[in-house]
Write a structure and sequence with these properties.
135 residues; alpha+beta; Complement Module, domain 1; 3-stranded antiparallel beta sheet; 3 strands; elongated
């Protein structure tokens, strides 16, 4: 704030009043600009976030050429086509077996020692049954 001394004559008092009036008008303009900026920022931050449709876009739907007509084909024209996709194969949850054989030569005799492995894919277990097979 501008502090002024007591004016001595009337002309000086009028000049001081005019200066203060100009300052007040300038400050009021700044306040108004700040209020507008504040309202704009509040609108950007707190306004609804949904999309609004432009009236020009709405007029597209009023045009008769934009309307789609769907013709329902008669039953004679409709042919049932076989499914083009084969159904998926079911995953084989059965037990897998494999044979492991070892040959061992003992005293001029060949022994075949084998093992049947049974693997369950569901439980991830391994069962082995050993047997000796002589030729």
């Amino acid at each position: 704030m501008v502090q002024t001394q007591q004016p001595k004559n009337l002309e000086e008092a009028l000049k001081v009043i005019q200066q203060l009036t100009k300052m007040i008008e300038h400050q009021n303009q700044l306040i108004e600009q700040m209020n507008v900026a504040l309202q704009l920022q509040q609108h950007r931050r707190f306004s609804k976030k949904n999309e609004a449709m432009n009236p020009d876009q709405l007029s597209l739907f009023e045009d008769e050429s934009a309307k789609i007509t769907v013709e329902d084909p008669s039953n004679d024209e409709v042919k049932e086509e076989p499914a083009s996709r084969h159904p998926k194969r079911k995953k084989n949850m059965s037990v897998r077996k494999s044979w492991i054989a070892y040959r061992k030569r003992i005293a001029n005799t060949i022994l075949i020692i084998g093992c049947v492995l049974t693997v369950s894919s569901h439980w991830k277990t391994l069962v082995a049954k050993w047997s000796v097979v002589n030729p």
